[in-house]
Amino acid sequence: MPNIIAISNLYKTYASGFSALKDVNLEIRSGEIFALLGPNGAGKTTLISTVCGIVRASQGTITVAGHDIVTDYRAARAMIGLVPQELTTDAFETVWATVSFSRGLFGRAPNPAHIEKVLKALSLWSKKDNKIMTLSGGMKRRVLIAKALAHEPEILFLDEPTAGVDVELRRDMWNLVRALKADGVTIILTTHYIEEAEEMADRIGVINRGEIVLVEEKAELMRKLGQKKLTLQLEQPLAAIPAPLAPYALTLSSNGAELTYTYDAHDEPGRIIALLRHVDEAGVRFKDLQTTQSSLEDIFVSLVREAK
């Protein structure tokens, strides 16, 4: 899959001396959903704003489908739709007017059929003649998304698009994202709802303190970094873990009714078999067992902790 965005040796240092981005190198593939995760202040919004030409980089290069965002700004920016965190809309305009105007800003000819399609997809059609100032916060968020899609961009940036919105909008949002991906649109999102990234993304990037900590295929990330837990539900509670089982670093629940073994997802399955054999030899009987794997949130927290 070819790259549609290429970021090389990107730095952003403000006049105060604060380094918001430090030697960021990142490539986004055409047609993928890329989730950028990081704690507050990690540099997610700065990175998006720099790609979109809102923030000027201190050093480095960014190209969008081969167009340099500085020397060929108009061509690069015309390919991008941006949904920012802030609710910035033209309060006295109608929904239809403000979305149509956004299309014209990019030099696109009027296309009422496309605007209608976008508004209906975002459940805004019934509000098309309403002034922005009369809408709820959730509806204003929908308008921002509609504005970003008005000029039919090939790349869509979603900066915390569902933060603080209702469940209905979140559902509509992700349905729309799936439809856009099916149409070949490249989508880059930042989110605090890690379960959304886990469900939607093809690849995951983690940024912390302005540096890219990791970029990985989601499935591969889960496989390589996810921990698994084997929990044995015991027939009789234990007061302590038998000495022969000490090499496995088991944990005993507070009531003594469960033994838990934590291991890496890529550990040899033979070690589990050996553990169960030693449990039996120690005279410990269990009535049930279950395995669970770390969520993406567990992995994310672990990565950020390691980067500090």
From TrEMBL:
GO molecular function terms noted in the UniProt entry: ATP binding; ATP hydrolysis activity
Keyword Transport: yes
Pfam families: ABC_tran
Entry keyword annotation includes Repeat: no
Domain ABC transporter: 5-234
Alphabetical keyword list: ATP-binding, Cell inner membrane, Cell membrane, Membrane, Nucleotide-binding, Transport
Domain of life of the organism encoding this protein: Bacteria
Segment forming the signal sequence: none
PANTHER family: ABC TRANSPORTER ATP-BINDING PROTEIN
Protein name from the UniProt record: ABC transporter
